[in-house]
Amino acid sequence: MRTSSRVRVVGHGDRRRRTRRRRALWGGGELLVTVGVLLMLLVVHQLWWTNREARRGAERKVEALERQWGSDRARDDIGGGAVNGGPSTVPTPEADGSDAPARQRPSTRVTPPRRSQAYAVLTIARLHLRVPVAEGVGKADVLDKGYVGHYPGTQQPGQAGNFALAGHRNTHGEPFRYLPRLRPGDDIEVETRSATYTYDVDQVLPRTSATDSGVVRPVPRSLVRPGHGYDAPGHYITLTTCTPEFTSRYRMVVWGKLVSTRSR
Predict the structure, then answer these.
(1) Which of 150, 168, 177, 193 is catalytic?
(2) Average pLDDT, 10 consecutive residues per value, the chain (264 residues)
(3) 150, 169, 193, 242: which is the annotated catalytic residue?
(4) According to the model, what pLDDT value does residue 34 have?
(5) What predicted TM-score, i.e. pTM, was given to this entire model?
């Protein structure tokens, strides 16, 4: 008895379809690997390279400011007067109302800095932070350089009112990354050409809206969480940064009060 068997014939069309599927799968795999590498490089650039470059630039700017101030003070000593917008002195009347002999104190008149100009140095010992302060809070010309930015329209260091600052918490030098470590009583120093102002941390607002403008008013008080802030005029400093980390949804706020001024 003869047994017949059927042999399946594979056509050229089937082989071509299988080849195309293999090529598509291989191409898709290569594309995924490429995208993964690009994403990894982007993360490395954001988390490492931008921090490295911004920190270096900020350190160089601090050194440049200190050299400039030292040179200006040397010229003041030689010339006997203030230069380049330095502090002038005004007589302080004696207790009896006479002017002689008159003591001297730095004038509170300050020449406003130009936009994006670095003009002060912020030092926070607990955070091992020493960073330039520049006018404005623009990203490209201030914050992304690793600087801390001064909110335009708020007061200057040592002045009555609110000296309000902003800084990155992540990437681009991230000067305020460890702001949550600050505790009441910690020192915040602001150095300018004419004086060093020391503030003590007084209040911390862990989270508020990014649009909470009350925190940078002359008498700072949160409009979102009214239990945080002040009711009376004073000499305040405000530090703001994004929270939680790697987002910009909310803001964290640290407030301090001026406790001493030391002329340079």
Answers:
(1) 168
(2) 55 69 71 60 60 94 96 80 40 34 43 93 97 97 97 97 97 95 98 97 98 98 96 98 95 98 91
(3) 242
(4) 62
(5) 0.75
What pLDDT was estimated at residue 105? 42
Catalytic-residue membership of 52: no
Neighbouring C-beta atoms of residue 148, cutoff 10 Å? 28
Span 58-82+114-263 CATH architecture? Beta Barrel (2.40)
Secondary structure of the chain in HEC code, one letter for each residue: CCCCCCCCCCCHHHHHHHHHHHHHHHHHHHHHHHHHHHHHHHHHHHHHHHHHHHHHHHHHHHHHHHHHHHHHHHHHHHHCCCCCCCCCEEEECCCCCCCCCCEEEECCCCCCCCCCCEEEEEEEHHHCEEEEEEECCCCCCCHHHCCEEECCCCCCCCCCEEEEEECCCCCCCCCCCCHHHCCCCCEEEEECCCEEEEEEEEEEEEEEECCCHHHHCCCCECCCCCCCECCCCCEEEEEEEEECCCCCCEEEEEEEEEEEEEEC
User: What tokens does 118 get?
Assistant: 């670095």
pLDDT at 106: 45
Q: Is 6 a catalytic residue?
A: no
Let me know if 242 is a catalytic residue.
Answer: yes
Active-site residue, from 169, 177, 235, 251: 251
